[in-house]
Amino acid sequence: MRILGIDPGIATIGFGLVEAERGQVHMLTYGAITTPAGLPLSRRLYQIERDMEELIGKLHPDVISVEELFFNTNITTGIAVAHGRGVILCAAEKCGIPLFEYTPSQVKLAVTGYGKAQKRQVMDMTRRLLKLAAVPRPDDAADALGLALCHARSFTSRLPQTKDVKETV
After folding, report:
1. Angle, CA 55 vertex, CA 42 and CA 28 arms, to 5°
2. Is 139 a catalytic residue?
3. Is 143 a catalytic residue?
């Protein structure tokens, strides 16, 4: 399964593509889509949509794993990121690629085994799990690879899904 992890944003959108097969995960490529700061929001969103559709067409993922938004202190930045995330979701739908969403805590838990891990710990474990020489740059790309790993580990888990669990008395 080819999993495209996406770390949403408005200025920088990280992406990372992994191949997950039989419990093994291998990094195929990673990088970032960027938009110029001086452009109006509408133009930046349009560019993100075009670039995402082109990226999906080029990489041919089976699924997309994207981060759910987490608002910390800067709501204004969060709103701009939400706009970019919305365009990313639409591009995935337009291309017909199944989409899975994960919270930052779910990514941390899947990658490090601890849902409150520090960003550096997640980045280092991503590097180790994918057997990379260095942590991918920019950070957005490393985050996107973490999202792809999260889906690979969650989707291929042998643990029963909630809907499959039956109560025994």
Report:
1. 140
2. no
3. no
